[in-house]
Design a protein that fits this description.
globular; 2 domains; oxidoreductase activity, acting on the CH-OH group of donors, NAD or NADP as acceptor; 24% strand; 347 residues; ER; alpha/beta; Rossmann fold; zinc
Length: 347
């Protein structure tokens, strides 16, 4: 099969011929139909993720078609169109039994701890516990964006912060996960203010229905959010993983507000100095979140299938496998609005 291989940090991905994967016991092999290019892939590319050893094939936001099944698989067969979370849980440990698959101690992460989906095929472990059926009406390019950014935003808003209709959500960072949060929050009946430093992203957020946008270059962004929302957002979603944006998220909240850390703190930002006086005096709640278990996919897919949310504007670039390096390098600076998805695995 053809795969994009990372052999040195920040080096161009090499298009190589690699052996086709075989299905592990309980797992399947999926022919990749589309795979998103995510900021987490950038962390892999730069060497900031300690779980990654070179050489390595990145890529974790994928959907595809089952082409082979391993021993013990009961729910899937060749030809099924599927989507998988980027955290593949074992399905058998106490955390999995309690429904907390993203906390599974035996998890496998394609694109991080296992070969990823910047390739023609990818192996999916513990398929019965992890795969979800992809509805016929959901196009592969959109489905690929679901595997990380959309599902992470959905879990943050509904599984962690319990965003309610009429509440204000402050989205700190108007990239892929931030725009997904905007679209989902609007579908849930919330009001949304998006904070960023890129004119294009702020304009994009406004076009997609943001009630307000804040240019963080223009002054105190948290104060601006508090003024717009009449005292502070009920929920803040931090989507970049830096100390500055996390502090902004906390300061943008009203008393008893909830902040969800969605952006992955890595490298220099793995340890942060934060305004804990604001947490104490505001009696704030802070939630961490990472991915979403497969059993929570159906309500989200039903929302999309029913036409209650249109996520298609999220995908703004459809690229070839040979263009992945350029998309990764774009995260070195404020990236263009929307999400890039690999849809051409021959180019």
């Amino acid at each position: 099969m053809r795969a994009a291989r990372l052999s040195a940090w920040r080096a161009p991905l090499e298009l190589v011929s690699a052996p086709d994967p075989t299905p592990p016991p309980g797992g399947v092999v999926v022919r990749v139909l589309a795979c998103g290019v995510c900021r987490s892939d950038w962390h892999v590319w730069t060497g900031a993720d300690p779980d990654v050893a070179l050489p390595h094939t990145p890529g974790h936001e994928f959907c595809g078609e089952v082409v082979a099944t391993g021993a013990g698989v009961t729910r899937w067969r060749a030809g099924d169109r599927v989507i998988a979370p980027f955290i593949l849980a074992c399905g058998a440990c106490p955390d999995c039994a309690a429904g907390h698959q993203t906390a599974c101690a035996h998890q496998v992460l394609p694109g991080f701890t296992a070969p990823g989906a910047f390739a023609d095929y990818v192996a999916v472990a513990h398929a019965d516990a992890n795969l979800a059926a992809l509805p016929a009406g959901v196009a592969p390019d959109l489905a690929a964006a679901l595997g990380c950014r959309v599902t992470t935003a959905w879990q943050a808003l509904t599984g962690r912060a319990a965003l309610a209709p009429g509440e204000w959500l402050a989205v700190i960072g108007g990239g892929g996960v931030g725009i997904a949060a905007l679209l989902l929050a609007r579908a849930l009946g919330a009001r949304v203010v998006v904070v960023d430093v890129v004119d294009e992203k702020l304009a994009f957020a406004r076009r997609l229905g943001a009630d307000a946008v804040v240019d963080a270059r223009a002054g105190d962004a948290a104060e601006a959010v508090r003024e717009i929302t009449g005292g502070g957002a009920h929920v803040a979603l931090e989507a970049l993983g830096t100390a500055e944006t996390t502090a902004t998220a906390l300061r943008s909240l009203r008393k008893l507000g909830r902040m969800v850390q969605v952006g992955m703190p890595a490298g220099d930002h793995a340890t942060m100095t934060l305004p804990w006086d604001v947490v104490y005096s505001g009696q704030l709640a802070i939630y961490g979140t990472r991915g979403m278990p497969a059993w929570r996919y159906p309500p989200l897919l039903d929302l999309i299938a029913a036409g209650r949310v249109d996520l298609s504007p999220l995908v703004t670039r459809r690229v070839a496998l040979s263009e992945v390096t350029a998309e990764l390098a774009a995260f070195d600076r404020p990236a263009p609005p929307g999400v890039a998805v690999v849809t051409d695995f021959s180019g």
